[in-house]
Amino acid sequence: MLTKYLSLFLLICLFLSCDKAAKNIVKPTLFSLKQASDTHITFNNELSYTEDFNPYVYRNFYNGAGVALGDINNDGLLDIYFTGNLVNNKLYLNKGNWVFEDITQKAGVECKNIWSTGATFADVNGDGLLDLYVCKSGKPEGNNRHNELFINNGNLTFTEKSESYGLNITGLSVQAAFFDYDKDGDLDCYLLNNSIKSIGGFDLIKDQRNIPSPDGNKLLQNSNGIFLDVSNATGIYSSAIGFGLGITISDLNLDSWPDLFISNDFFEKDYLYTNNQGLSFSENSSNNFSSTSMGSMGADAADLNNDIYPEIMVTEMLPQSLERKKTKAIYESWDKYMLAEKKGYGNQLPRNVLQQNIGNSQFFEISRITGLDATEWSWSTLFFDMDNDGLKDVFISNGIYKDLLDRDYLNYMSEPNTLKNLMHSSSETIKKMIDVMPSNAVPNAAYLNKGNLQFRELADSLGLGTPSFSNGSVYGDIDNDGDLDLIVNNVNMPSFVYENTSKNNYIKIRFKGNTQNTYAIGAKVYAYYNNNSQAFYENFNSHGFQSSTAPEIVIGLGKTKIIDSLKIIWPNNQVSLFKSIKSDTTLLAEQSQADLKLKTSTPLISALLKPANLLFEYIHIENPTIDFKKEQLLDRMVSNEGPAFTSADINNDGILDFYVGGAKNQSGQLFISSPKGYKNTELPFSQDKASEDTDAVFFDSDNDGDLDLYVASGGKAFSRFDTNLNDRLYINNGNSNFIKLKILLPFSKPLSTSTVSVEDIDLDGKTDIFIGERFNPEAYGAPSSGYVLKNLGNNTFIPLEQKELKDIGLITSSHWVDLNNDKYPDLIIAGEWMPISIFINNNGTLINKTNSFNLNNSIGIWSSLKVLDIDNDGDQDIIAGNIGNNYSYKTGTTLFFNDFDKNGKPEAILCQKIENKYYPIIDKDELVSQLPFLKKKLLYYKDYAKIDMAALFGETILNQTVKYELNTTETSLFINNNSNFTQAYLPKELQYSIVYAIEATDLNNDGFIDLLFGGNQDLIKPQFGKLDASKGWILFGGKDISSFTKATPQILHIDGQIRNLKAMKHLNKTIIIATINNSTVNFYEYEK
Asked: Measured at the alpha carbon of residue 779, what is the angle toward residues 757 and 774, in degrees to the nearest 5?
């Protein structure tokens, strides 16, 4: 018996032991950090500051250094070169099997006692051996302070010959990129130099970039082995305001010529140079990008969604968490932001940007919807396929050793006594100032590409989450196993050498050019496999920050074993075509064997709409009201939602007529068709031009058989008592001439109206009016109401009390429709910070039945409505425009509204819900400026970073506060199933921006309704950033709603802030009318 129990005891112990051991097993990660004891790579970019040399003396002190990969001895193994700042550079020869030899001194590439920055391997002299170019910066002293070109002697030694090649340039150089911009068969050079002037030495003066500086950036043309500065002749800026930190080369418009993207730090905008067939460059950033990053650092370009068009990502300094944003991020004021844009510095925003290439040299900025907008103080971004699944992933190097922008530190140093005390306590005042700077390592970021431009941050699980102070980084197949390993240069800690352990298949391409461009820099590779899969790569080696990759390409294939075909387009447009290539092999592609020639032409994406002849002309001129002057805690303006627009056939000629509303101090105009075209009139509307038209509707107010016109007034440019907010009714005298109704509409107070809808709600034969209140023009966030005016006939109206329309939200849109088939029109209302709301008409009384229709959890920032039977099942569905997912709002974003300081002027405080607590999103300085009584409670930014609304104001105050919490931000379909609405999300692209306009029409005459969408909002504070990633979209309808929910929308290519879209038939053509805020009314013709 004892033996039996002993056996059982031992078995239990064994089980528990195994279970415990299983729990302690460390799951293998994709990347494995190699140990210096194994690799013999011991490089550490140690940086120590002194009283004489430090971040206050040299602003780029903590920018770190770079790393370059290249096979210097053509043995098939990639060697590694690290640059150092205060330490000497190191060259490590790859001996195979992750063992390296330090051959720096023997090779003669140490760059001793000089501050090095970027490094690039390139075959500069065309002899088939990789040479090395090293950029220099830092102190203006030393025998070899100039940039150095080390020519490869072929025996693991190099000879410095920069002077002989014209590349011995002295300045604050950051990086050099070698590429054949003129396609003459040799490598030219773009040299990135940082301005030697201090940032404070500049004002936002227009056209400073047009003034050349001898210390600026340079385009150097290779002329028989001598590099000549052709910057001015080719349109390259070389001014003193170039604070460049990144060079990115890619054929962005696919015209076969390499283009240049230069990321600039500080106030200067980034440059996008379009290559004019090797003759010159045109700087087109303002035309091709709507938004860019401000403190731009490293960048990369590659095709992220496998559509053959390269995307661009630029890193900045915005922290990832809300807590760190509050202590580290500094934002421009609205006035300075607008001044910079006015002076030609572009729309620069304090975050990373991801520019999706949509073709035709146009980009959408989509960093926020992809989650790539905020990744800490980020130096470098790299696009490469980490797991070889056929999708390029994103790696970002992060960290700064001394946090120069910590806001508590900046406040501390700005105190009058701080500097005085430091000077008294020590002779090394500056050193003491730096000693107290915060220093916190942060993890690098790694995002796996899940397809369709969707990413997951997985640095920890990938093995890349070690906190660090990382700068330059580079990828390459170090061990020749077909996956891309990763090398990272760090400040004050050993460099990272990561082995990639992916098991997926691959194909590697190495290039042999037949010109002086021996590694075929600029070659393109197109791979086709698995029938519908494709991949596009470019052979440029300048990537990220101060770093360069090897001139070879690794294409991840997932589980694919055979590539159907692979096409290489060489820099001279010769073409090599390979078929049925086995995976897990290395292809040596030789240009001399290319037997095809590319017919070059820029691939233009055909537009669905082409500009049509103008039916009429109207330019909407928005008033210059700045909402933030009234309410500084707002994140975005809401005063630019015009022009109002409505249409009807008012002269009964079978052709639509139009009213277009004006902004404040601009008259609306009526456009009436005639045999000679449209005739316009401002009468009698000009007498009301002091108002702002926000909506309008034609209807027969007096039952005399013609159409009258109701015009709503609104906006925030008025006092809440201003009579210019009064809506107007214009009566048609029967000849399409309108006279303003002299009797005021029966409102108890002026309203800022947003929407007007008309219907006979009591079935008495007269048309009644619903009016939606947008907001209190002096207090955004105050609950607004809806109103119904009952038509008594003879243009007389009385208010019809509707208790359930009181204080329902910030109304934007409305629509009458009979939802329950009782012949009485019901009311659908949408707005900001409210659900899509259903009011059932009970014999003229409106009853809120939102919950019954399953819409109570649809609280959004709704900006537009369209109601129709989208699924052809006999009931009415809803299409609703929302703010989208490419913004700071998300589920749990909450607005608190109260008079928090009891001064008679209420405030709206924007918050984010995190673990069931609500934390203010707005900047501390703005909050304290608005509510000075909080200053004592919020002495430090670190205090504000951690405090929630309950701790800030107390539960008593919060319980008396109006609170709106978002459930959804997506533009959506709501499908009606037996009076129960189900939300169906529309495609991701429709979430790129806010949607103000929705039109439904059968555009292509296939018998199915198509949906058109438009939007954008420019007037948003820079810390939140414009909503501008839309040029209008169309979803072509089909047999079921999947044609709307699962299809890829097509771009309409309509620029600007679209407010209305209208489809009409005109002269046997389908015309699309788009009204644009602060711009012209546009007309387009649909092309099949």
From this structure: 10
Mean pLDDT of the chain: 94
132 is written with which tokens?
A: 């090395």
23: helix, strand or coil: helix
DSSP letter assigned to residue 762: T
Which residues, at least 6 apart from 297, have a Cβ–Cβ distance to it below 8 Å?
245, 246, 263, 265, 314, 315, 316, 317, 378, 379, 380, 545
8-state DSSP, 85: S
Structure tokens at 359: 């073709």
Alpha-carbon separation of residue 315 from 137, 380, 393 (angstroms):
22, 6, 15
Whole-number Å distance between alpha carbons of 740 and 758? 18
Rounded CA separation 455/12 (Å)? 44
Residue 811 to residues 129, 637, 689, 1027, Cα–Cα distance (Å): 68, 15, 24, 20
For residue 221, the number of C-alpha atoms closer than 13 Å in the C-beta half-sphere is 16
CA dihedral for 828, 861, 342, 629, sign (positive or negative): positive
What value does the mean pLDDT take over residues 386-412? 95
Classified as helix, coil or strand, 408 is helix
pLDDT for 667: 98
The residues, any chain, with a CB within 8 Å of residue 4's CB and separated by 6 or more, are none
What does the block give as tokens for 98? 């992750």
- Residues 525 and 581: their CA atoms lie apart, in Å, by 14
Helix and strand element counts for the chain (H, E): 19, 75
Phi-psi region of 734 (alpha: psi -120 to 50; beta: other; left: phi over 0): left
Q: Select the more confidently predicted residue: 17 or 290.
A: 290
Q: Which residues contact 980 (CB under 8 A, 6 or more apart)?
A: 853, 854
Query: Which pair of structure tokens corresponds to residue 785?
Result: 């109401």
Sheet containing 158-160: which strands, arranged edge to edge?
Answer: 116-122, 131-136, 148-152, 158-160
CB-neighbour burial class of residue 613 (10 A; exposed 0-12, middle 13-18, buried 19+)? exposed
0.85 exceeded by pTM: yes
Show the tokens assigned to 442.
Answer: 């942060």
Dihedral (CA of 47, 52, 58, 59) sign: positive
